[in-house]
Give the backbone structure.
Amino acid sequence: MKLFHSATVTKASMDASKLAQYLSPKSNRYQHILGVVRLMEDLLPSLQIPDNWKPHVIQACYLHDIGYSPKLNQYGFHPLDGAIFASKKGFVKPVVSAILFHSCAYEIAQMEKNQKRLSIYQAHLPLLDEHDRLLIDLVTYCDIHTSPTGEKISFQERVKEVIDRYGAHHPVSKMMVQNQKHYEVVVTRVNQLIRPKIT
Ligand SMILES: [Fe+2]
């Protein structure tokens, strides 16, 4: 399975009304996605990244959890199902990469030991470049700072919320705790891209 295109320009786009064709606007998931987009829009003016990368960042935020749509379920793993959808729609490689790898998806795929899924990740991992990795970091950063219903929260609150919601022994909670260091590294990298405010 090849999910990455060589094209750097696409007419494909995603927004709140198109997203509503895949996830109900009344669902928490939909509100969470809009919260991630809002946080990214707030962050973008102070981010030291090339201007022509910024539309890709917003598209990736709209798409990052679209794989939860029952309409798109193929592998039962939302980062992969979402990336397959975005690839078929013609989104550029950094956007597809951000969906596929956001929020420790590769690390989770490794832990779950589903060989079919894992082999797709292992085939795409060596293809990631600087642009792709930056988008993965930015989507992950906004994802872990947004509550399940779309409010801005701290990373520590997000970890606590996951443990409260699933219970400490649930695999989702265990993965969150086990990957905490990885998330902290992402937060540090993104913080280094934020231009300090002049007071
Ligand atoms: Fe998310």
